[in-house]
Structure prediction request, 393 residues.
Amino acid sequence: MRIAGTIFESLAKAGGYEIFTYNLFKTLARRGHEVCLYLPHRELRKRSPFYQNLPFETRPMIRCTHSVLKRAPWLLQWYLAREQKRHNYAVWQAMGAYPEAFATLRVHAPKVLRNYGEDVQIAPNHSYGMRSNPALADKVVQGLTGMDRIIAMTESLATLQHELGVDPARIRRVPNGVNTTRFQTPRDRNAIREAWNIPPDVPVILTVGRNHAKKGFDLIPAMASRLISRGLDFCWLVVGGQTEKLHPAILSAGVADKVRPIKSLGANNTAMDLSRLELPVDELLEIYAMADLFVLPSRLEGFSRVIIEAMAAGLPVVTTDAPGCCEVFTDGTQGLIRPVDNTEALAEAVGTLLADAPLRHSMSQAAREHSLAFDWSTIAAAYESVYQELVEE
Prediction:
């Protein structure tokens, strides 16, 4: 099957949106499909060696892609419609409602949209969501309602899609994916800890993600302080973009010797064999492998990819009852779920798991088993089913 896709960010950024795109298209290509991803013209030119070595084809959108999108979106829509006429794709996969789905509205072929959260969710108190911008709100809805099928990663997203005007008959439930084999490959924990200067007997708490108000990372210093007051020893690694901004709060809480922010680990195209690129990068997988417990105090998620990554790595999870978090696993089986913004309850859950090694072990085993349902082989097959359904209509 000939499949086209659209994305407006750099895959080298290696955030959740980019990791999903890379892994979906790589898996579809390995399953025998002819896939092509359209990216902004400048991005492809800027990182040409990076994209030339990917396991699927990439093509540029119209020149000055972002300027055209802003000033003459119809021209970008016409360009992609022309690409459809040239290459006769069986289906188009948009990676977000805006600008990806919006840009394909004039394409005369079946179109599928996968919402990732920020494109449809809204949290004005945390400056989150494209629909918070009145100039984009209508375009988001146009992109959303102009698709033939909508992928909902969670029930909460499916409900929101319906509220925004999508016919429920067009919605299909498919969760996010993870390469379980990579995460479950044995690694030398002690050697990794030594490289990060962490003693082998100190429990490692891990948090991964972009430091944004909706992620709740601002709660971590207070949580760490509560754990210290209980006499618990630990090292808390917070990995992701903008985590350096936590330093003032960490110092103020007196937990600088326990909480360590680490910059985002993206795809460095000058230091890796691009023909064998995997996302997330191996350095992040090593950090997962040396950890004992995963914590995500988020206030809102579309579908937390990092939670299924943590479970694939065998980490019990402590998270909140926020959409996109509490829908991923069962409270008390693979981890513990506590109320949003309840620092005391979240710290209590973390402390319980730190102090109870047998409980951590049983949840670790359950987490690994549960993660298998999200393996990319299963998720890609679900997308194939959606595409085939459209082709046969």
